Amino acid sequence: MNDTEQKRILDEWLHTHRGLLFKVLRAFAFSAHDQDDLFQEIAFQLWQSIPSFKGDSLASTWVYRVALYSAIKWSQKEQRRKDKHEDLDVSNHIPRDQAPGDDPRVDWLYQQIVRLAPIDRSLVLLQLEGLSYKEMANALGITESNVGVKINRIKKQMARQSTAAQSNRRQKYGI
Questions:
Q1: Cβ-Cβ contacts under 8 Å for 30 (sequence gap 6 or more)
Q2: Tens digit of pLDDT per residue, the chain (175 long)?
Q3: In whole angstroms, what is the distance from residue 42 CA to residue 63 CA?
């Protein structure tokens, strides 16, 4: 495969699967700068993976797998770097307006997702994308039954957190 064909495939994947890439970025990187860094890493890993893509799975499954493994590896590397160095916290000073129409429920969901372990986080993102248990198992290299068990536990955990958050809001506002 020549570089021109490889670039065409990468451009197609990045365009076609931008929604799933955005979900991965938002779940693993929290500042705009980190999201840019992570996107570069994912794009690089996708570029390198193109020659080994044989078409045995859907391109979306392949892109998800590469993106999730890249994000997990990147977040582990970032955590080690942060443990070694004290970063300046300038993120609070970056002017950012909340986009009109942002849904606080979506924000809450992402706040819950980022608290999950990396594999659980990946499973939630894959489920939000509508993948089957079999596709999720293939993307993450675990069994379908393990996917089912993990998703069931995550749903129960998030339901408890949602109930607790609603209860706290009711107490706070005397409802």
A1: 114
A2: 899 999 999 999 999 999 999 999 999 998 889 999 999 999 999 999 999 999 888 999 999 999 999 999 999 888 887 766 555 454 454 444 444 457 788 888 888 888 888 889 989 988 988 889 998 998 888 999 999 999 999 999 988 988 887 787 777 777 6
A3: 9
Contact (CB, 8 A) for 37 and 8: no
- Burial letters 39-53, b for 16+ CB under 10 A, else e: bebbbebbbebbeeb
The residue length of the chain stands at 175
Question: Using CA atoms, how far apart are residues 45 and 130, in angstroms rounded to an integer?
Answer: 24
DSSP secondary structure code for residue 99 in this structure: P
CA triple 9-14-17, angle to 5 deg: 110
Residue type, 68: L
Please work out, in degrees rounded to the nearest 5, the angle formed at the alpha carbon of residue 103 by the alpha carbons of 100 and 106.
Answer: 135
